[in-house]
C-alpha cells in the first residue's frame, strides 16, 4: 500500500476522464504500484464512438501492454490512407510490426484498457462530475458534484491530478489554463449506418466544393459516415437530417451506397486548440484536454494515448522518489511540440479537403501531384501520420539514437526471456539491450536483454519505448 493510502489521501493520482487516454494512464500507474482513482462523469459506458483509426505507433504502445493483438482482432487492418488531391500514403514500408492502420471503434479500445486498469488495481468511479480543484504543497483536492441519485458533494485528495476529460475539460477550466485556437469545421454530421453496397476503397473519402463525405467500416457490418455540407451551418445540438446526409454522400461519391438504418447520429464542431502548458504544479493535461484538432488523419486518439504513455512512467518514478521535478517537466517539453505538430498536419489535411475556390483546389491538386511524384514526401507523411517518425529532443552530443523511438528488436532466445523488445517492455521498466557476448551487469530497476542480431549498439530504452541513451562497441 502506498504512503498516500494511509495519510488522508484518496489516491496517489486522480485521473479525470475514462476515455482511452485516461484508461491507459490509469493502467500504467496501477501496474507500477501507484494507487490511482479514475473519476468519470458518465454514469455508464457508451457503445458509441467518434474515433476509429489506430496508427502504427499507438499499436506499438499497446503491444508493450499485450493489447495490440486483441485489439486488431476487433477491427479491419488496412495498408494505407488517401490524402486530399488523390495521393495514397502506404504504411506497408514502415519499420513496424503494425505497418498499416487499424479501423476499429473507440469503445473496443476503451474496453481493453478498462479491463487492464481494473485488473492492475485502479478504481473507476462513474457518475463523478468534477466541479473544481485546489492545489497546495502536498497535493490536490478535487471536488465532485452529487450524483443524479442524490447524496452530498465529495472531495477527493491526491498527490497529483491528470485531466484527460476532453475538449470541455473541467480540470483545465479549474486551473485557469487558456485554450487558444479557432474553429475549423462547424456542423459536421456523424452517423453509424448499414450500407447495401460497400465503397470500393477503405476508408473512402471524397470532397466537392460544397462539402465532403467519409465512409469507413467498423468490421461488424456497421459503417461510420462523416459528412459536411458547406451550406448547412447548424448548431451542434441540431438533429441530423438523414436525407441531407445521404445527399451530401451522393454529391461526393455519385451514390449513397444504399445507406440505411442509422443507429446513432450527431453533429460536432471541430476546433484547433492547444494549451500553452501541459503541467500546472500538481495538475497535468493530456489528450483532448490539452490539444484538439480536426478529425483529418485520425490523429487525435493516437496523440492522447501517446501522451499517457509518456506521462505514466514519469509520475510513477516521481512518486517513488526518482526523477523529481525535472522528469515531470519533461512531459510538457516532449509532448507539447508533438501536439503542435499534430495540429499542423491535421489542419493542412482538412484545409486541403475543404478547398472550394479554383486557386485552393489547384493547391490541393498540386499537393497530390507532388506526393505522387515524390516518394520521399509520401514516406515522410507515413512516418509522421503513423507516429513512427516522432522523436524527442536529445542533449547536445548525444548518440544519434537518443530520443528516437526504439524499433522492436529481436532478442536472443533464452528460457523465460522475451523474444523481442516490446515484449520486454511489458515489464513496465527501463530495458537495456546489449550486444551478444557483452558483459552485462544486473542493475536495479532495469531489465537487461541480449540482441539477437550482430549489431554492437547498446540501448537503454525508457518504459515508453524511446531511447534514453545509446553507445557503440
UniProtKB/TrEMBL annotation:
- Cite the GO molecular-function annotations of the record: FAD binding; oxidoreductase activity, acting on paired donors, with incorporation or reduction of molecular oxygen, NAD(P)H as one donor, and incorporation of one atom of oxygen
Provide the FAD-binding domain boundaries. 11-344
UniProt cofactor(s): FAD
Keywords recorded for this protein, A-Z: FAD, Flavoprotein
Concerning InterPro entries, the annotation shows: FAD-bd, FAD/NAD-bd_sf, RIFMO-like
Keyword Nucleus: yes or no? no
Short name of one Pfam family: FAD_binding_3
Query: Which superkingdom is the protein from?
Result: Bacteria
**Protein name, please?**
FAD-dependent oxidoreductase
